[in-house]
């Protein structure tokens, strides 16, 4: 799992990034996403996000977490990280 | 390392928590701290924070990361996680 946290003062860029990240994972807090993607996918996501933010003004961090670490997550006021279902019954 | 992220609408509680967390690690973003503490210390911190927030209104998450995972962190606009020096030369 990858935790993405960001501080982006510019409204337009912030909304654009959060919309973009909706395609990768669950929005957990105002500027925190939990994305169940691989380490390589995290690196690819990082490259894509770099193109839409301004390092001089914006702050984005990508934390990689193993399944074991994810299981140790502690939460107050919300559910534990929930990986998407492995398959859907249609 | 432990990443603590929080969404706390109430100004007083939010400021109180961030002041409290200053004693445990580095403030990275508006509501994100990186704390170089052990897993057990994370559990102790969790219990202490539980006493000063309201689960019905507040959202706090504690992510445990191994040293290896920390080294894979990717950042835009800020430095990589920096563990405190192991010793100080006086």
TrEMBL record, chains A, B:
EC number from the UniProt entry: 3.1.-.-
CDD domains assigned to the protein according to its UniProt record, in alphabetical order: Cas2_I_II_III
GO molecular function, one term: hydrolase activity
Top-level EC class: hydrolase
GO BP term (any one): defense response to virus
NCBIfam families to which the protein is assigned, alphabetical: cas2 (TIGR01573)
Family per record: Belongs to the CRISPR-associated endoribonuclease Cas2 protein family.
Protein name from the UniProt record: CRISPR-associated endoribonuclease Cas2
Source organism of this protein record: Crinalium epipsammum PCC 9333
């Amino acid at each position: 799992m990858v935790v993405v946290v960001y501080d982006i003062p510019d409204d337009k860029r912030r909304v654009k990034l959060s919309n973009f990240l909706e395609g990768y994972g669950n929005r957990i807090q105002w500027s925190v996403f939990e994305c169940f993607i691989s380490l390589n996918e995290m690196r690819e996501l990082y490259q894509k996000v770099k193109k839409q933010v301004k390092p001089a003004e914006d702050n984005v961090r990508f934390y990689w977490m193993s399944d074991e670490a994810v299981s140790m997550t502690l939460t107050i006021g919300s559910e534990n990280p929930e990986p998407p279902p492995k398959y859907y019954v249609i």
